[in-house]
Amino acid sequence: MDYAAKKFGVNIVTLGPQSWDPVAHAEAVEQAIAKKPDGIVTTLWEPGAVPAIKRAMSQGIPVVVIEAVTPDSGALTFVGLDNYEAGVDTAKELIKRAGKTGKLVVSGNWGASNTDAKFKGLMDYLKANSQWELLGRVDDKATTETAIDAAKTMFNTYKDMTGVIGLDSSSGTGICLAAEELDKDIKPLAVIVHDREAPVLECVQSGDIDATIVNKTALQAYMAIQLLEAYNDEKVGLATVPISSDNKAAGVIPFPQYIYMGTQVIDKDNIQYFLAANMPKFK
């Protein structure tokens, strides 16, 4: 967001919870509406904020959803991962690194739209293309503390697992820190996680995590702001592209319904390019 703010010269105000809290998230969208902004960018992990998004749109405030989306969001568009395909990519990475057979445990924030879609993509591909056996799932609720506890439970319960998948931003951190606290060597396991929290990148460097699958988050944030700018700028004219004689009256949204980023694999071969110390600063 900082890069987009600098490039487009816009003021971006951040509202809402920093962790999984659907009620607070919906309230934050309502608070944003009250400020009468030129646009709103939000995530949509579950449908609780959909009424607020539709209310913003009805009041002429354009909304772009990023990261995760639910059906009938009411927003202009979604910019982010195709989470089902991200799950497929995860399955392919597991097979690439560990072969077509093994015993798997998956950690995730079950009930979140993106996690559930990733899990479905993962399992659909594994069932069709391998003999991997799912031993079980643990719920990390996308918080570091819970993810550590969930990973400890996983290590203590599933002694014969050969592969571990983490599907949300805290899963990999939980797996790494739990292994450290238990003094457990996880290098013999195939460990594929998601996102790029600092402990995850450290574990990729050390070889404890084989790879992490990430969204191009900087690009999705940039494109969300770019789309809102194009929508609001009469010179650009995105809102008035002649799909109909009167898009607003006709109920036409002049945006693609979904804009997918695709995934990026981070492993020991390219890790240096993703470390926070090597990233440019824009504040």
UniProtKB/TrEMBL annotation:
One of its GO terms (molecular function) is carbohydrate binding. GO terms for cellular component: cell envelope. It is found in: Cell envelope. It comes from the Bacteria. Residues 4-231 form the Periplasmic binding protein domain. Its main location: other. Gene3D superfamilies: 3.40.50.2300. The keyword Acetylation does not apply. Keywords: Signal. Pfam families: Peripla_BP_4. Belongs to the bacterial solute-binding protein 2 family. PANTHER family: D-ALLOSE-BINDING PERIPLASMIC PROTEIN-RELATED (PTHR46847:SF1). This is Periplasmic binding protein domain-containing protein. It comes from Labrys okinawensis.
